Amino acid sequence: MKDGATRDGYGAALVQLGKSHANLVVLDSGVSDSTRTKQFGEEFPDRFFNMGISEGDMVCTAAGLARTGKVAFATSFACFLLGRTMDQVLVSIAYSNSNVKLAGTHTGLAVGEDGPSAQMIVDLAYTRAMPNMTVIQPADWEEAVQATKALANYFGPAYIRLGRQKLNGIYDSSYNFQIGKASIVREGSDVVIFATGSLVQESLLAADLMQSKSISTTVVNISTLKPLDESLIIRESKKHMAVITAEDHNIIGGLGDAICQVLTNNQIALPFKSIAVGDRFAETGSGSELYEKYGLSSTHIIEAIKNVFSKKTI
Amino acid sequence: MENTVLTEKKLLELQIVARDLRRKILNVIFHAGSGHPGGSLSATDILTALYFGGILRYDPKNPNDPKRDRFILSKGHASALMYCVLAKAGYFSEDKLWDYRKIGSELFLSGHPHPKTPGVEIASGSLGQGLSVAHGIALGARIDKLNYNVYVVLGDGEIQEGQIWEAAMSAAKFNSNNLIAIIDNNKVAQDNLTEDLKNIEPLIDKWEAFGWDTYRINGHNMEEIMNTLLTPMDSVKPRLIIADTIKGKGVSFMEGNKSWHGVAPSEDDLNKALTELE
């Protein structure tokens, strides 16, 4: 199991894919050293397009390339990749069903010191709301590699949500990522946590610490946020006494809402708590300080586990 | 583009095609009960030259031929024009045009184009995106070592979108000389004269400064349109053609009149217009 940032897994996978997929092209908007597309650009200069600081132009150019049979990975900091291009992504990519993969790095409060204008916490809401759009967030380096490869072999618009911060390795090369499949990374029996991205790691930490309190916790990695692995979510929820969701994203429009919808549509009534950013902008500070202050750290997940567990008999 | 000899006869034929298209456009918009006549009529001569003057290489029997020239209508509200041209070019039967803007339209003849319709490359309707998309296709041709051209028609009001200028810089950066943008410069937008909304001139100076070869022509003079489109692509730069046009061209009471931007004609207006276009 390899520790590392998901952006690094993405960049490494692109270089491998460049060799096997002659129709793969990569675009960036002037931040290729940070998004890790730079190495692809050095190895495959004819299939790398640095469009400069113009994200709307970049995503539509990617759509044009896709119309010629390319699988186009358009990459930038998520704030700008999506924040500046909702209309372009909706019309030229989602509605046109263009084979473009949007790769947004530097997501969530984990970005830290650059402050709220750089901390993308609404991207899952943006992308989940678009018809045709697949939405993926890997939880470690290995999953980022595999998810990138899976997207290169999948036809259709997709968003992959990547992070800058180093994450503990969860998977080794025996793991088999599949679009639309969630994976159980820890088996328990009392409370189930559906987590995504960096919060999988926080949830595993919390689950470890809860063992001493005799509360047994399951952790499920929801790496495909759309389409959701509904059957697994329903099955695991029914096996437990309470449900928690965990994400580094605003509490509106992300994983918490998605899971709520599955539970309510299937008449599953259980104590429930969403761990997410509480519909407010954070501030500057280190990622771990922000996780602590804005409710995303393992400490908060532990509180949530105790809280929902105490309500299990309602 | 193929070797086309521009004879008097050919020009006359194209003028007749353009007149028939204008009649068809007004008929389908009337039948649909909504649509955009003004900007469809202004671009009719340009699309006539492209599709029926031997400029675009296309095969309606094989709309996805990788070697085809590409055409993108970035000003997607002129969809009535696009569909009438595609039907005339043989992509589908003219009978289908009566589905325009109707629910359940088999060929998805939506208010704005979508690639479900044969001959349409990408969805448009949100202004400002088509030049970037066209440029992406032009870059794809380079990767595939294919020598097709990509033509895109922009509205003059559309030039107010910032993304147009992003794309203009990109195409110059990549020396995309298989990209030809044509501005349907009808000078009238929905609300107002384009220059009163926000002045887009001097167009030549701006596009030259952005690294493009530029041409300025009368967008209703078929000979000028054809001669410009037939000018060999021998520069490393992308090409811009400013086609000065008249909104609502061909119908006296629509010409230059912003109130015909997005309104269907009444039966009376339709009949008057068709009489003028005989």
Number of helices of chain B: 10
Helix content of chain B: 25-40%
Q: Structural class of the secondary elements of chain A?
A: alpha/beta
Rg for CA atoms of chain B: 17 Å
Oligomer: heterodimer
Amount of helix of chain A: 40-55%
The CATH topology annotation of chain B reads as Rossmann fold
* Element-level helix/strand string of chain A: HEHHEHEHHEHEHEEEHEEHEHEHH
Provide key terms for this protein.
heterodimer, A: 314 residues, alpha/beta, Rossmann fold, 7-stranded mixed beta sheet, 5-stranded mixed beta sheet, 13 helices, 12 strands, B: 278 residues, 10 helices, 38% helix, 10% strand
How would you explain this protein's 3D organization?
The complex is a heterodimer of chains A (314) and B (278). With 314 residues, chain A is α/β, with parallel strands linked by helices. In chain A, 40% of the residues lie in helices and 19% in strands. Chain A has helices at residues 6-20, 32-35, 38-43, 55-67, 78-83, 86-95, 123-128, 141-152, 198-211, 230-239, 255-265, 287-293, 298-310; strands at 24-28, 48-50, 71-77, 100-105, 134-136, 158-161, 183-186, 191-195, 217-221, 224-226, 242-250, 272-277. In chain A, strands 2-1-3-4-6-5-10 form a seven-stranded mixed sheet, with helices on both faces. Chain A has a five-stranded mixed sheet with strand order 7-9-8-11-12, with helices on both faces. Chain B has a single domain, classed as Thiamin diphosphate (ThDP)-binding fold, Pyr/PP domains (Rossmann fold). A five-stranded parallel sheet of chain B has the order 1-2-3-5-4, with helices on both faces. In chain B, helix 1 crosses helix 4 (79-89) and helix 3 (44-52) packs across helix 9. The longest helix of chain B has 25 residues, at 8-32. Chain B is globular and about 50 Å long. Chain B starts with 7 loop residues before the first helix and ends with a helix. Chain A binds chain B through residues 25, 46-47, 49, 51-52, 54, 56-58, 60-70, 72, 87-88, 90-92, 95-98, and chain B through 66, 70, 114-115, 121-126, 128-129, 132-141, 143-144, 162-163, 166-167, 169-170, 173-174.
